[in-house]
Amino acid sequence: MSDLAEPLTSTSESGLNPAPNPSTLIHPRREPFEHGLLPISKLIFTDPAQALAPLKQKFSSAGLRVDSSALADALQISVEHARLVLDTLASVLHSDFDPLTKARPDEIDSVGADWRDIILFLYIQSYKKLLPKTHKDSAAVADVWPSTSAFDGYLSALSLPQLARSNSRRFMPSQADEEAHQLSYLQKHMANILSLLADHVEGESEESMVLTVEGFEHLGFLMHFGDKGSERVPLSQATSFFADSDRDMPAVPVPAAQVHDWISQNIAAALEHLTEKASAKDNGSASASDHDIPMADVCTSSIKASTSARGPCFIEGISKSSYVKQASDIKGSSLKVLNCHESVIYILAPLRYATIYGCSDATIVLGAVGKAVKVEHCERVHVITAAKRVCIANCRECMFFLGVNQRPLILGDNHKLQVAPFNTFYSELEEHMAEVGIEATTINRWDEPLALGVVDPHDSLSHPAGVSDVQAESATRLDPDQFTNFLIPNWFGGESHGSTRENPFQLPDAYMASQQKNVGA
């Protein structure tokens, strides 16, 4: 095999691989797997390669970009669901320079998506999430997770599969476990994925398939190089496949089999590194600077917060307290709030992605989130956020005060959800919104929730055999008479540096009247 197919990890003279340099390890892009899966049955194929091959031919022959009408026709889905696919794809694309990423919400359909990104997005709809862990210290969890709810009387009417889901206290797997699961998925399916991006030269054998530089770069939707503390390195910069091409001439395509060998070797090296890292942790030799905190570890007596340039910032295990993070406190562009209870949490920063998981009896303010917010398995939580899009799954008795440019997406087994217009501000809010691309003057779709199915086909735990799906319970609008502003304290005193002096989202008349009545009371 030529040097082009060698993994980035070096090999010693003895033929044994030394400990790999973390900055040269391949990683899955978490965003498509965490924010890009949709529970729409017609998007999920038993054999994705076979099902998507005709779509590849149809889309590639028709042109580079696909709009919602063409997508709806090809997949036999509604235009509404096709638009949802484009909206979701736009929120998880790897390139900030793609026209779909840069499009305003009302331009997404006219801009359309590159057919190769559509194919990759549809392929990973076959992904099955790693099962959540039960907590190792059930007594500690019981201390912070309420054991009863006003809604618990409903449980007697549930079917056995629903009852099992409702009673399970679910805790996210560790970042390392999720990464290994995603890498294993890519390893298993990479040959098929490459066949959908590759072009035939002559004949129909695998050896006749080649990958152009454009097709290769689209693999960046699924993976990248780089590690904590370093910038992500695109695949095209991590290999010399196309390095010798003349800038004035099209790059020479590379055999798909050679690309497959190179990716497979790098995935194998990354999985080996993760295994060795887990073994070292089990033996008690984890580095103090290692921020890969197991997300199943709830701490009731102290706050766990960690950041890294590559991975998300974690806020975990806060109980019965207030907690604030500003832009200067967050190094990365994504954040996860996990297993927090009876607390008020302020995240006053611009972000790309945010996840709220397993929280109860809390108020959580997310300043400005430019790509996507996901709220899962929460009870009696108030979420206040300005965001491009919001996804709500498996929540009870929660209230969402939203400034959103896309329809709130509601999935799974939800009960007694309410939505209301955005109701707060802080001095830097408008600057943060502008930084991440959220519009306030013309678009707030807080009151247009889109409910999909109760059953999550990407989750084997919540998708038992023989259980038919029904539409998820949607959210109701908060009564305007119950609407109030939420005041964010001036935590650090002194002169504020931002220009925001009021809620940047215009309130509907009924809510404005209620606000004015409350102020005058």
Automatic annotation (TrEMBL):
Q: Quick one: where is this thing mainly located?
A: cytoplasm
Single GO cellular component term: spindle pole
Q: Where does it localize?
A: Cytoplasm, Cytoskeleton, Microtubule organizing center, Centrosome; Cytoplasm, Cytoskeleton, Spindle pole
Give the highest taxon in the source lineage.
Eukaryota
Residue intervals of the C-CAP/cofactor C-like domain: 300-438
Q: Which InterPro entries match?
A: C-CAP_CF_C-like (IPR017901), CAP/MinC_C (IPR016098), CARP_motif (IPR006599), TBCC1 (IPR039589), Tubulin-bd_cofactor_C_dom (IPR012945)
Chain segments carrying region Disordered: 1-28
Q: Which UniProt keywords apply?
A: Cytoplasm, Cytoskeleton
Give the record's family classification: Belongs to the TBCC family.
Protein name per the record: TBCC domain-containing protein 1
| Lineage of source species | Eukaryota, Viridiplantae, Streptophyta, Embryophyta, Tracheophyta
